[in-house]
Amino acid sequence: MIKKGYILLLLVFILTMFIMVATDLERLYNSFGRQYFENNGFFETGSRNLVTAIYLDYRLIDSIFEAGILLIAVAGIIWISKHDLSEKNVEFMIDRFKTPDLFITFSRIVYPLMLLFGFYVIINGHVSPGGGFQGGAIVATGILILYYINSDRETNIKQIVTIEKLVYFLIILVASLSLFTKGVPFTNFIPISRGTEIQSLYLIVLNVLIGFKVALGLWTIFTAFLREGR
Amino acid sequence: MLYVPVYLVFIPIISSMIIFIFRQKAILSLAFVAQSVMSVLAILYFVQYQDDLSQTMFTFGNWNPMIGIGFVNDSISMLFVFLTIFMWWMILLYTFHYHNDHRNFLFFLLFLEGIFLGLLQTNDLFNMFVFIELITIIVTILVAYEKAGNSFRAAIYYLLINTAGILSFLLGIILIYYSFGNINITIVTSMMSNASLSDTLTVRFAFVLIITSISVKSAMFPLFTWLPRAHAVAKSGVSALLSGIVVKGGLYVLIRMTILFQPAGYNMDIIILGLGLTTALVGVIFAMTQTDIKQILAFHTVSQIGIMVIGISFLNGDGFYGGVLHIVNHALFKSLLFLGAGVIIHRYKTKKIHDIRGVFKTMPLLSILMIIGMLSITGAPLFNGFISKSIIKYDLPPYAYWILQLVNLGTATSFVKLSQIFFGPKETLESKGTVLEYIPMILLAGSSIVLGTMHTPIMNVLLNVDLSYYKSFSMQYLGEYLVTIALGYVVYRFIINTYHNAVRKVREFIISFETANILFLSFLSVMIIFFVLLPTL
């Protein structure tokens, strides 16, 4: 009880300090970054979605390592999960007889729509909200629903993980192509003078690769957890 | 040549993935090929840019440096790069026989190297945050690699505490971006001298958040509890790597941040000095009471980190370089001790020092190497630990000087206690060590002696500072050292070895996760009071 009261006191104190700091914020705001992105983002990267412009061009190396975090997390979860990956036919935690039939039937209808929507979000990442990371998560959710539809699916995780590593390798490769066209690594390899239409090709390619990688990674994590759940 | 930092980051990452994908035995040698290529590249790079390291700055994509992400090297980061590559050579050699049936281990190890080199050379705060996060995740996996119950517990403890710490780093970055409009370290440093920006509540608050998160990452006083747990349960090679270099990542970020906030003129040297002193003292008190060989070494890592932080608290001049030099020295001798302890544990099948006897007659070469490591850590003249400790001691105020002497006494006590494993009759043991385990230890011991006697030219080339004033040997130093050891023996004999109740209590003192959180919040509040409230009142 004393501990809880003390923690509460500390949190209240820190929150009060935050509120004190917030009085300063109006006066301090430096909008340099925001102005820059609003004025130049579209012309320099060919992306109407400024978030995509930032994470696929201005700060591409951050995105590469963000994808790397997922890669490492997947490898770590597989390593830590108890079951041997050579077991291919694992009975999943999902019990066919406990899942409502209505849910299964609806899943069959929704599944293609989910995949389509996921691909849509990936491919249109540079003109509308979304992108590789978000679309990849949607596609992975669609794949997860397959386990409800057909509960004795076989998944060869080893293959998926290998493909995921290869895709990550491809991402690094595509990102560093600009070393040969512009002389600087980790930016768009299509010169700015070609116009925004051509530039967006690169954005689509990278978004698709990232979406693919994220979907594979999340799929692996689901499968590892499903096995663990028994 | 300008993009060598990028190659240094991506060569190990790509090799690690190739090793993971192809499962032939021959592919394992790729790790050593990558290491050789990286060593050559780093040396060539250093030779080319030695005269003017400010030319190494570049931005990915040739964007405005306030927008894009840049890499930059200075003399300190180059020193760290060389140290990192060297340490990874040692660990890869030491764990070589283990890789055949554990591909994943090599994958994580090499990936960690690339990430760590990225952390050293980045010039962007958010990029630094991403690298620190990745390091946290990989180290969690490496700590949990044994898949035993206690290693899982230690790994999760490490992950949670460090995640809490790193979140405050992120908040600090947000506040800095809000008030400076960019997060390029070089540019923010030049803007810091503008008092209307830096002397505000917001930036002070950001500073507090960042220092708090660093104190978690580098295991300073109130939040060091994860370090002994994680280092004691990991494999010996991983322990050496963690104590030797990965924990220093936090200290490296501390160096970067002190350089960043120096123009703002906060009185941060006092608080960093206080943190260093308490860390050194508390770490050594815990270390004296332990009986598990790896716990002893892990708590000594905490206390030595305290000494490094004392050095860094000078912010510039000889004392600061003493702190940096102590980081290098500690990496050498602590990893040597951990590797030696790993061989001993592997052959005696126990970690309790009371059950290990007769090491000297059983394994003479290993014992000589371990004794070199012990002489270094206790600060014997002619060994590297002595140099950096005397540089740090030289400029300290009197009270700090005496606390540091106390820490030295505690270190001596602790290693007098550890040295009892050497005495006793020869034992017959089944398993034999391999030659590859001894090569890294011999190299580490050799470099300890070399840095202890030839520190002046080496530091002159690498850091461009003149340390020739600090001699590595005189009869007075030797006399002081012998007195310290004798006192240490007395303390051990009459206090530590009496099985006193207080000693047992300290040994079994465990900080639970809940208490660690309370400590974290209290520390944050104290820092806020010191840096944000008091200057405004």
From TrEMBL, chain A:
Q: Which UniProt keywords apply?
A: Cell membrane, Membrane, Transmembrane, Transmembrane helix
Q: How does it sit in the membrane?
A: Multi-pass membrane protein
State the compartments where it is located: Cell membrane
The source's superkingdom equals Bacteria
Major localization class:
membrane
Q: Which residues cross the membrane?
A: 7-25, 64-81, 102-123, 129-149, 161-181, 201-226
Ranges of residues in domain Na+/H+ antiporter MnhB subunit-related protein: 104-220
Q: What are the annotated GO cellular component locations?
A: plasma membrane
What the record says about family reads: Belongs to the CPA3 antiporters (TC 2.A.63) subunit B family.
How is this protein named in the record? Na+/H+ antiporter MnhB subunit-related protein domain-containing protein
* Organism of origin: Candidatus Xianfuyuplasma coldseepsis
UniProtKB/TrEMBL annotation, chain B:
Give residue ranges for domain NADH:quinone oxidoreductase/Mrp antiporter transmembrane.
123-392
What name goes with this protein?
A: NADH:quinone oxidoreductase/Mrp antiporter transmembrane domain-containing protein
Q: Does the keyword Phosphoprotein apply?
A: no
Q: Which UniProt keywords apply?
A: Cell membrane, Membrane, Transmembrane, Transmembrane helix
Localization in the cell: Cell membrane; Membrane
Primary location group: membrane
| Positions of transmembrane segments | 6-22, 27-47, 67-92, 104-120, 126-145, 157-181, 201-227, 239-264, 270-289, 296-315, 327-345, 365-387, 399-423, 435-455, 475-495, 516-534
GO cellular component: a single term? plasma membrane
Topological type in the membrane: Multi-pass membrane protein
Record's InterPro entries? CPA3_Na-H_Antiporter_D, ND/Mrp_TM
Any one Pfam family here would be: Proton_antipo_M
As for family, the record states: Belongs to the CPA3 antiporters (TC 2.A.63) subunit D family.
